[in-house]
Amino acid sequence: MKLLVVIDMQNDFIDGVLGTKQAVAIVSEVKKKIELYRKNGDMVVFTRDTHGKGYLNTQEGRNLPVLHCVKESEGWQISEKLDVSDSKVFDKPSFASVELAKYIETLEDIEEIELVGLCTDICVISNAMIIKAYCPEVTVTVDSSCCAGVTPESHAVALEAMKMCQIKIK
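Now predict its structure.
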């Protein structure tokens, strides 16, 4: 069985306060990928960047002083173009989810874990690395056509870094 991990496809990262044209451009491809996994009987899970109103007072908030993905806000919601109804969603207070990695570690018969989403250079790379650490014998793949970074350049650098850590890049 394969597992698709959809990282932070939230309104604030697509067309909200931290949105980019590259993020907007991948939504339809991510939707197709989700539909393909479900059609094949494979698993799909999501992550959701989740902050409180005090975000700007956190270390992350001091380094990225843009209030975003505040729990229950419109920007926090996963894009309505993506169906999350039958999937587990992991809320995460920072870049990567240890809870997600521990959950994946418990799954049996997972042959491949594929990641898609936002942002390649922050949350996708962080989650790919932690998943690879928890599940070193499982193939971890990132579909670069279904990811977008803060900039095209930082997207490319993150993909190269993941390759060096034995994460396959499509």
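Strands lie at 2-7, 43-49, 88-92, 112-118, 139-148, 168-169.
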